[in-house]
Amino acid sequence: MENTKKTQSDIGRRDVLKLTTAMLGYTLTAGTAAAILNGCKADTSTGWVPSFMSKDQLSLVAEVAEMIIPETDIAGAKTAMVDRYMDAMLESYSAEERKMFLDGLSLFDQKSKKLNKVSFMKADEEQRKAVLDDMVKESKNAKGPHIWNIVKEGTVSGYCKSEVGATQLLNYDPVPGPYQGCVDFSTIGKTSYI
């Protein structure tokens, strides 16, 4: 009988992602998982133009992302160019998932017009928060992927994969020292960047 137990060297990125999300009690949509596994990252060049989103959609995503990860003592989602990451992320999506994402962005305006009588981009901060609160509630009862969850996970993964997120939020160590299996979290101070 062949031993089917996986060794540490047999565990791939997919297994690590599955185990991590299972431990955190969080699941990723297929498109976002594919983007992470394919090494998706934001293009930071000055002449960049979006490949999938319109400029209005890109502005909307940037504003929502900044509300999820605002600038505080560390840079926010806009500085990390999370909107560019999410545009690049769409390349890993199937045509159906891409259409669902792009069509889903209109829900932000629909909700804002219903609640505030103005588009999301013209709403003030409190009005925008009311829209996001409503979307959070709605996403908890959604039968399938909800645009709020997709934007939220794209924001978090894009931020953590950015240089800003890796160096300011996470514990980025480009040249780690020797392996130390049992290190007290308080000595590290924050989650490490992989």
Overall description:
With about 190 residues, this protein is an all-alpha fold. The chain is built from 10 helices and no strands. Helix 4 crosses helix 8 (about 145-160). The longest helix is centred in the last third of the chain and has 16 residues, at about 125-140. The protein is globular and about 55 Å long.
The gist of it:
This protein has 194 residues and is mostly helical. The chain has ten helices and no strands. It has helices spanning 13-24, 30-37, 55-68, 82-89, 95-104, 106-116, 125-140, 147-161, 163-169, 185-188.
What sequence of helices (H) and strands (E) makes up the elements? HHHHHHHHHH
Task: From the alpha carbons, calculate the radius of gyration and give it in angstroms.
Answer: 19 Å
Largest sheet: none
Overall shape: it is globular
What structural category characterises the helix and strand content?
mainly alpha
Which runs of at least 5 residues are low in confidence (pLDDT < 50)?
1-11, 20-27
Strand segment count: 0
How helix-rich are the residues, as a percent range? Answer: 40-55%
